[in-house]
Design goal:
The structure is a single chain. The protein has 13 helices and 23 strands. It is an alpha+beta fold and 437 residues long. Strands 3, 7, 8, 9, 10, 11, 12, 13 and 16 form a 9-stranded mixed β-sheet that branches. A 5-stranded mixed β-sheet has the order 20-19-21-22-23, with helices on both faces. It has a 3-stranded antiparallel β-sheet with strand order 4-6-5. The chain is globular.
Length: 437
């Protein structure tokens, strides 16, 4: 993509309403613009990041045999009355009356909708287990939306639902999703710590939140230092096998959100304790028959008798992750994207657009990288070098190829790594090889 033809409305000054780093940087980098309180339009750069995160989430859900569906944003209120949650959910639910005087709502979650679909289509235990997910916009009428996409009213979420014959099967599904979430966050370049959590309005008897550490996190968390070294990278995970040992490994040590912390345990940990701010990026629940019983989701069991299915739900805030990643990875100059979610993997900075030799060299590099399948942003604008450097760092281009007249004359380019800040002069061949490592 040539920057001279790209829609990228960056800002030099920080908007007054932006209170945290991710909100400031998303506005300054031209990723989003506010439509109304807590509701944002996603501009081209921001949408690229959002889609990259969505792709990783989708791939990891598909990998565990979770099947994608797409449910509506608007749901009939009668579904929620059937489950008993319509009156209990509170003012965060946006209630609507259509032209036929039917009560509707803008869905904050989809337990009722998916349970109805299951109840109408699955009849036998032989069709179990089932796991279904979708990636869809949600709405919760927050009383004080703030912090940009971190606490907005409209947000993109991946929510998945499992259906099993009994509690043993439900535990297997829960473990699958637990491990899938760990893999998802690692692919996103995040260190996510699972913590036992309150089930809240979703209900159930087992729940974990996944939190990442960031200075501007919404809650204070405490965990054992060993969590910093836990990883699944390089492990060959059999999702059809016994995942309990992995779950046990990631839950054996102490980890607690502010409302569930234990001062006595923390005192005993001493230097092994880490306290920090945390941002929730996912939440999983096992709630048994909470929804299947009132909504009639049952199957014929092996003995021919009807059995209400055991269920779970599993959420990842896709749009929230954009802000969370920025909160965890930025500096004074701008965003530092993990490679997997960066809007462009490489930036080419032409320091003298209009100079025949520089233009020719940059165009050649641009064509080569595009042929290799790389997402490239070529800054071919007639702008000062300082402006180009500042914008490249602001939007977080992981690799920056800097091309100027002196370097072209000597057969060299300057390569900058955004994360480390390291810069070195190399031959073009060496620079391209290093980018591909």
């Amino acid at each position: 993509m040539r920057l001279s033809r790209y829609y990228l409305p960056t800002l030099k000054d920080t908007p007054a309403e932006a209170q945290i780093a991710s909100h400031r940087l998303m506005l300054r980098a031209g990723m989003v613009r506010q439509s109304s309180a807590g509701i944002y339009s996603w501009l081209p750069l921001g949408l690229r990041v959002l889609k990259n995160i969505e792709t990783i989430v989708r791939e990891e859900q598909n990998a565990i045999g979770c099947h994608e569906v797409l449910m509506p944003t608007i749901q009939p209120a009668d579904l929620w009355r059937k489950s008993g949650r319509y009156d209990d959910y509170g003012p965060e639910m946006l209630r609507i009356v259509d032209r036929h005087e039917r009560d509707m709502l803008y869905g904050p979650t989809n337990e009722e909708q998916i349970t109805e679909i299951f109840a109408e289509t699955v009849r036998s235990y032989r069709e179990l287990p089932q796991m279904l997910y979708h990636i869809q916009w949600k709405f919760r009428d927050e009383v004080r939306p703030r912090f940009g996409v971190m606490r907005g009213r409209e947000f993109l979420m991946k929510d998945a639902y499992s259906f099993d014959l009994n509690s043993e099967g439900a535990r297997l599904s829960y473990n699958k999703m637990f491990v899938s979430y760990l893999k998802t966050y690692e692919r996103l370049g995040l260190k996510a710590i699972p913590m036992a959590a309150d089930t809240g309005p979703i209900g159930g008897d087992m729940s974990h939140e996944f939190l990442i550490l960031a200075d501007t996190g919404e809650s204070e968390i405490a965990c054992h230092r060993d969590f910093m070294d836990l990883s699944l990278i390089g492990e060959n995970i059999d999702f059809d096998g016994d995942l309990q040992p992995i779950v046990d490994r990631f839950t054996a040590k102490y980890a607690a959100t502010d409302e569930m912390r234990n001062p006595e345990t923390e005192k005993q940990l001493g230097d092994q304790l880490i306290t920090a701010r945390g941002i929730e990026v996912g939440h999983i629940f096992n709630f048994g028959t909470k929804y299947s019983k009132p909504m009639g989701a049952k199957v014929a069991g092996p003995d021919g008798h009807d059995v209400f299915v055991e269920m779970g739900s599993y959420g990842i805030g896709v749009s929230r992750l954009v802000g969370a990643i920025i909160e965890a990875s930025h500096d004074d100059d701008g965003i530092i994207w993990p490679d997997a979610v960066a809007p462009f993997s490489v930036g080419i900075l032409n320091l003298k657009s209009g100079d025949a030799a520089c233009d020719q060299a940059c165009t050649g590099i641009y064509d080569t990288l595009r042929t290799q399948g790389r997402d490239v942003l070529y800054d071919d604008r007639d702008a000062r070098a300082g402006t180009k450097f500042a914008d490249a760092d602001l939007i977080g281009l992981p690799w920056q190829l800097i091309v100027g007249p002196r370097g072209v004359k000597n057969g060299l380019v300057e390569l900058k790594n955004r994360k480390s800040g390291a810069r070195e002069e190399l031959s073009l061949e060496s620079a391209l090889s290093k980018i591909s490592e």
